[in-house]
């Protein structure tokens, strides 16, 4: 494979596929797009191993707005991504998110976040312990100071379905995909001129988009650039429950939400079972190929917390587990998107820190606007640009799970 592409996207999971779709769907863009994906099975992609949820309960307005747009795309996905008679159904489950605060400091954080969310029009309410107990009677609330609940626009969905829908539609619109690995990026001064593929050799490129997930730093380094993104392991566990509380809620047609305990342990329904995880106590960067789950997190951290929070979770049985990688932005846990000021045709779409699926639609749209129109036309993502990284100026997100 040789030749020239106007845009080469390194990484074909949900972010790369979203960028390709939005470019190909833009009537003002008439260029050629190539996505290069090293593992077309996506077996170890962050997309495939994600808990696949979306929320508006963030601490800064940009992240709220990004997810509001993501929710809109998820709602309309079957129509937007229809190819022939194929209409992808993401099986969205509108369970909402429920954040619990135990201390006054945690409660104050929820209040501050709530003001940001409400200013953006998010459908989020704050509840006292009594209100929380009435809504979800299975919970013990003695230690709860405040709760924050998303009444709509939040839930979970088919992760691979989102990626596959973007990819199939982009291909139908004319984007090319190749199963290969980028081993080098050529650069002349402040301009990237192409990529080298392990199997196919040199490809000339007008623009290169880094959508390489946890491997983003490797790809940036090929262009002589740096980015503070590391692979951080997150283990996910699925358990069965002898006396399931699902259906017991007094709100949202009985559905239980994705609940985040004050300890950081989270849990949500997954079919007839439940899915859970927690922030690791020790969180080092891991090898790119290390996907061994940390089983002790379930035994030592998660189960005791869940059993204390609800009698229903005292008798549970582990069914399965896996581990995936966050593309973790060590500066401020927020995505890094946009052109590099020294290499204007190298564009970042990295560092999502666990939020890539829900932020893929807005990121894909934003990157396509930069390429096709020279600037953002819808949501201004400039505060999330690489400039803040170069200036060591964090744009903090306090609500990271």
Automatic annotation (TrEMBL):
Gene Ontology CC: one annotated term: cytoplasm
InterPro entries noted in UniProt: FAD-dep_OxRdtase, FAD/NAD-bd_sf
GO molecular function, one term: oxidoreductase activity
Alphabetic keyword roster: Membrane, Oxidoreductase, Transmembrane, Transmembrane helix
Transmembrane segments: 7-24
Domain FAD dependent oxidoreductase: 6-370
Record-level GO BP terms: mitochondrial respiratory chain complex I assembly
Protein name: FAD-dependent oxidoreductase
């Amino acid at each position: 494979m040789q030749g020239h592409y106007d845009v080469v996207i390194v990484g074909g999971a949900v972010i790369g596929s979203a960028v390709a779709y939005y470019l190909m769907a833009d009537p003002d863009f008439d260029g050629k797009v190539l996505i290069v994906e090293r593992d077309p099975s996506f077996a170890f992609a962050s997309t495939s191993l994600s808990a696949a949820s979306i929320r508006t309960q963030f601490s800064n307005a940009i992240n709220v707005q990004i997810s509001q747009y993501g929710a809109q795309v998820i709602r309309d996905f079957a129509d937007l991504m229809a190819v022939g008679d194929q209409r992808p159904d993401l099986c969205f489950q509108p369970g909402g998110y429920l954040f619990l605060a135990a201390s006054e400091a945690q409660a104050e954080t929820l209040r501050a976040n709530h003001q940001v969310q409400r200013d953006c029009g998010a459908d989020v309410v704050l509840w006292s312990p009594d209100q929380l107990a009435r809504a979800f009677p299975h919970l013990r609330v003695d230690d709860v100071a405040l709760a924050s609940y998303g009444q709509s626009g939040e839930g979970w969905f088919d992760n691979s379905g989102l990626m596959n829908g973007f990819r199939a539609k982009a291909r139908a619109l004319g984007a090319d995909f190749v199963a290969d690995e980028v081993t080098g990026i050529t650069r002349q001064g402040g301009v990237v001129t192409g990529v080298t593929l392990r199997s196919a050799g040199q490809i000339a490129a007008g623009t290169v988009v880094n959508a390489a997930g946890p491997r983003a730093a490797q790809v940036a380094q090929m262009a002589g650039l740096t980015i503070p993104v590391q692979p951080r392991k997150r283990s996910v566990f699925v358990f069965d429950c002898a006396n399931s509380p699902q259906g017991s809620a007094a709100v949202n047609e009985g559905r239980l939400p994705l609940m985040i305990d004050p300890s950081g342990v989270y849990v949500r329904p997954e079919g007839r079972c439940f899915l859970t995880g927690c922030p690791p106590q020790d969180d080092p960067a891991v090898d790119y190929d290390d996907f061994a789950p940390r089983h002790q997190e379930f035994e030592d951290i998660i189960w005791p917390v869940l059993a204390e929070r609800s009698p229903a979770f005292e008798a549970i049985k582990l069914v399965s587990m896996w581990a995936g990688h966050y593309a973790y932005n060590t500066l401020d846990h927020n995505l890094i998107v946009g052109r590099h000021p020294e290499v204007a045709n190298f564009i970042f779409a990295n560092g999502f820190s666990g939020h890539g699926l829900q932020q893929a639609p807005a990121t894909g749209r934003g990157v396509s606007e930069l390429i096709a129109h020279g600037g953002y036309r819808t949501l201004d993502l400039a505060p999330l640009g690489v400039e803040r990284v170069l200036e060591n100026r964090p744009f903090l997100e306090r609500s990271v799970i």
